[in-house]
Amino acid sequence: MDELAIRLRGVVKRYGAITAVDGLDLDVPVGTCVGLLGPNGAGKSTTMRLLTAQAIADEGELEVLGYRLPEESKEARAQLGVTPQLDNLDVTLTVAQNLLVFAHLYRIGRGERHDAVERALEMAKLTDRRDTRVDKLSGGMRRRLLIARSLVHRPRLVLLDEPTVGLDPQVRQELWALIDALRSEGTTILMSTHYIEEAQRLADSVMIMSHGKAVAAGPPAELVTEHAGHQVLEVYGPPPRLAEVEADAGAAGLRTRRTGTSVSILGVDGGDGFNIDGERRPANLEDVFVLLTGEEIA
Amino acid sequence: MAAVRAQRSPKLGRLERPALTGVLVREVVNFSSYWRSATFSSTVEPTIYLLAFGFGFGSLVSTIGGYDYVQFVGTGTVATAVLFSSAFPAMFGTFVKYQFQRTYDAILAAPVDTEELVTAEALWIATRAGVYGCVPMVVSIAFGLDPRWGMLAVPFIGWIAGFGWACFGIAVAGHAKSIENFSYIVSAVLTPLFLVAGTFFPLETLPGWAQFLGNLNPLHHCVELVRHAAFGWEGWSDVASAAFLAGFGLLMWRIAIRAMTRKLVD
């Protein structure tokens, strides 16, 4: 039986009249990478804050690395690495000083501190920038440092909150390599993201959240097959034409979603007689995401 | 599936030394990058007050309550230096660190609780205040104040008062909705307390009700203690002043922790 690094049951978190997390169950097995996928405001960041006890749940059970939250959260945090969504590095300090401060905060003994900082510098590929002030680094370097900072104490579990938000594609790929390296070392990862490609590439399993609830969970490929089938037919045309196509597909019992300038008809697997001119393409996680979380952004 | 139970570490307590050390290390390392400006503002301002009042008023009033006026002000502005280097950095620093730099989010994700965070920050500011508080006294010595052994107590007096004011500043930052809110505190609380502390004129010249209020002013007790350290201790009244400052520190410490817990943990 697999062990769980994170186990949430029926977790509810309210802010006044708003229920940010609404009865969430979440399992993160040890040694896996789980992606929390959802639009802005779905409750991903609140879930992350609950896991470090920076938010206290109103209802439900939370266990992180076997510690019950919030009572034993300090013990859990000692073995947890957290990369926040917003860069909160000390910008007037050097790269190495930032890592050194966190080596202290994570209670690494005097004898091991130096090695821990060196290892983190290497992971972030910032060894030759060790004495550079953070405000002189590029955006990608800063983000690598932010991730490396959460790894100085070799945590068993890492929480990555939107690790690549707002970065260039090149930088994003760099970070994916870093996260993938971490994963192959056996570190358990919970990563929130609203980039679908990121979840598809890195996550062993994905949980799609909407309005504080889990609307689907499973390995990305299974979710795609289950909710969007194998093939998608994408039809382009002027808006009246698209509305017509939607109506036809609906009548034929097929599900559709708008893709901006086109309509995607999901699950048109095999030659099922629905013959409209369009481009066939494999179904992807984005189809599932939009289907399950709605097309409008709240 | 069962949650992980192996590799459990022993229960961690409150106000742990490693947590306090971690936060202090961060402050000390950061201080290396801004000590010049902090030292400048914390020492030059009180020195200007000392020179302006000491020599400005000093030319009209030569002695006050038996003391040379320059020396009276010189010892009094120690409390001013303590206030300026504790309450103000605590208010602005705390607000900037949670609101703009999000530093506290990172620290609280580590094994550090809000109580430890606030305590370590206040200890650090208090230590700085204890050191900076000595500057006006050193300047006064340069202008003729006789050194006394009792003056060795001044950094400790500054430390205790500075801890209370640091916690006061953190508590204010914890309640403030925006950084503009600080103007109310500065104008309505700090400025009156700063003026009615016995720094520039003795409280005895004020009406009875103002004297009574002055005795509730922690800054006044700091002024009294420093003056007595420099000119001669006065027994029980000094013990009472020290106790008052310690009480002020303890009360503000708990209020600051409460305010920041509400702010940082939702």
**Which sequence of strands runs across the widest sheet of chain A?**
6-7-8-3-9-10
Helix content of chain B: over 70%
Q: Which class do the helix and strand fractions of chain A yield?
A: alpha/beta
Largest sheet of chain B: 2 strands, antiparallel
- What is the makeup of the main sheet of chain A? 6 strands, mixed
Instruction: Find the CATH superfamily of the largest domain in chain A.
Output: P-loop containing nucleotide triphosphate hydrolases
Tell me, briefly, the overall form of chain A: globular
Beta strands of chain B, count: 3
The oligomeric state of the chains shown is heterodimer
Overall 3D shape of chain B: elongated
Number of domains of chain B: 1
- List the total number of helices of chain A: 10
Strand proportion of chain A, as a percent range, falls in 25-35%
CATH architecture of the largest domain in chain A: 3-Layer(aba) Sandwich
Structural class of chain B: mainly alpha
> What is the H-and-E element order of chain B?
EHEEHHHHHHHHHH
Total number of distinct structural domains of chain A: 2
The CATH topology of the largest domain in chain A turns out to be Rossmann fold
**Spans of chain B of 5+ residues with little confidence (pLDDT < 50)?**
none
Concise structural overview:
Chain A is of the alpha/beta class and 298 residues long. Chain A has helices at residues 44-51, 73-78, 95-105, 110-123, 139-149, 169-184, 196-202, 220-228, 239-251, 285-293, and strands spanning 3-15, 18-29, 33-37, 59-64, 67-68, 80-83, 157-161, 188-193, 205-210, 213-218, 231-236, 256-258, 262-266, 279-282.
